[in-house]
Specification:
By secondary structure, the protein is an alpha/beta fold. It contains 7 helices and 10 strands. Strand 3 and strand 4 form a beta hairpin. Helix 4 packs antiparallel against helix 5. It is globular, with a radius of gyration of 19 Å.
Length: 215
């Protein structure tokens, strides 16, 4: 899958009738041709021309996933359905992976339908084949053998100037370390991985980078 860059999202959202309707309603143009301040809106953010929607979980925790226009939804599903974070583990786990990163109306049902059409998901479902043990190819067999690394953002800038979140997950234990970052530059990511993972736990045998949504 091609990396979903800022330009790709801008073009896809610009051609999406629902996204443009929300943008025009929530962020009307001023006399100078610019949109109103996005931080005045409690439910939406418009960053670099890309629409984000606030999601509040029952715990009260807030997320700002990017609104995925219809044109890109299949591509997003195929990426996360096939990568290490959602590899044919069923619709519920795939949805839980997606909901903090991306959003579109009816996403849970779309994910359910997508997984229902996947022969491997159907076969590996404990309901359909209780003897099957869900597994991944090249799964870790011990702690710190494989570390999955992901970075998402940008989010609204925090008081400390952070806009991105770097996640490091042990594939075996599922232990997770998350670190807010001001930038997604390679040097900053490498330094953070070294300081927050390699120094305390040692170097993993394999580091698996996942989707970096913004270029």
């Amino acid at each position: 899958m091609t990396a979903l860059t800022e330009e790709i999202f801008q073009r896809a959202q610009a051609s999406d009738r629902i996204v443009q309707g929300i943008t025009d309603r929530e962020f009307p143009l001023r006399r100078d041709g610019k949109r109103q301040n996005t931080h005045d809106n409690e439910n939406y953010r418009l960053l670099d021309g890309i629409l984000f929607k606030k999601i509040t979980k029952p715990t009260g925790q807030e997320y700002w996933p990017v609104w995925v226009p219809e044109l890109l939804r299949q591509e997003v599903l195929e990426y996360y359905h096939g990568n290490r974070r959602g590899m044919h583990t069923g619709s519920r786990k795939l949805y839980l992976t997606l909901q903090e990163i991306v959003y579109w109306p009816g996403m849970a049902e779309t994910v359910k339908q997508h997984c229902a059409k996947c022969p491997q998901c159907v076969y590996e479902s404990p309901v359909n084949n209780p003897k099957v043990v869900l597994c991944r190819e090249h799964s870790a067999e011990e702690p710190n053998e494989i570390v999955n690394i992901d970075i998402v953002g940008p989010y609204p800038r925090s008081a400390r100037g952070n806009k991105y979140v770097l996640t490091m997950e042990c594939d075996f234990s599922k232990y997770v370390v998350t670190v807010p970052l001001k930038t997604k530059e390679a040097e900053a990511i490498a330094r953070t991985v070294s300081e927050r993972w390699i120094s305390p736990f040692g170097p993993p045998a394999t580091r698996v980078p996942t989707l970096i949504r913004r270029r």
